[in-house]
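Example record

The entry below shows one chain as it appears in the dataset: sequence first, then structure tokens.
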Amino acid sequence: MTSAPLDLTSTSRTALVVGATGIGGSALVDQLVSEGWQVLALSRRPGAARDGVEWIPADLRSADDLRRALGTRHPTHVFFTAWARQATEQLNIEVNGGMVRDLLAALSHAPVEHVALVTGLKHYLGPFEAYGQGPIPETPFREDEPRLDAANFYYAQEDELFAAAARDGFTWSVHRSHTVIGHAVGNLMNMGLTLAVYASICRDLGLPFVFPGSETQWNGLTDMTDATILADQLVWAATHEAGRDEAFNVVNGDVFRWRSMWAQLADYFGLEPVGPGAEPQTLETQMAGMDDAWARIATEHGLVESNLSRLASWWHSDADLGRQIEVVADISKSRLAGFGTHHRTVDSFTALFDRYRADKLIPAA
């Protein structure tokens, strides 16, 4: 099944991108601007000025601030790409579900036609507190799997989306990504930049480039999501009939094994790849105490960011690469509905690394 695009002229399309400075949000803003949309970019702090983008600083955790920021705005499409990590899943539910609820309530006056929500594969794997520990669906994960019998802030976000759609009459889509890699700094979950920084430190200090994860991940099949793929699917769902009122997995379209990918990443940086040990040799352990080393590297190479904590999210990459289960998402649903964008994941990594070097986030070759 395929569908034609809806009749949307550039003058009638105003997108509100929530989390516009994050990995997915940044790529989405780029795509929307390139396609002629007017973009309202909401984030805690404004990004760089650019044509076609109006920055809206706002605190997503404050209903009052959202009403202040959005009370006079009239977006036709809303793309929610933000989240705020909390200490417990109950707090994740309260905070992240509340952000979706309060933002959509602040837009109840607006002519919103469609709202897209970005979540992820914790929909199938469970929350951080019980990640992959209970019964989970068989891979590849499919969108029609029932929810797990566990508290999950993704479910809370979906429920707030569905309730607002029923109240205000807009259509919706949910996009379940897997380990998004893209161009952003200061993001809590950026494996692309994390591995680039790790490799750069290994090269500078002559350290082995050790895979920090489990033997299961080293040998098993997996997949990932390029931020540009996510952006493309978000826009597709918002502008095609087949994307309305549906949930879609979103990954690059290829599958790979880390034992092969790790060798390709090592080759890019001129390193020798080393496989996993009997127990994961985590990045948090390997990179402990490297803040001063990175500050020196940044100074010597004229890099734009000397604060290691703004570049590397060791904990998140450790969580993904240390899993003891196979994680693969089925994307047949979106393919059959007409979404056909495809990337090779190794190309996603190397294109990112090239961009990081060009932007002086990591040392040049």
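Notes for this example: The chain has a mean pLDDT of 94. Residues 14-177 form a domain with the Rossmann fold fold (CATH 3.40.50.720).
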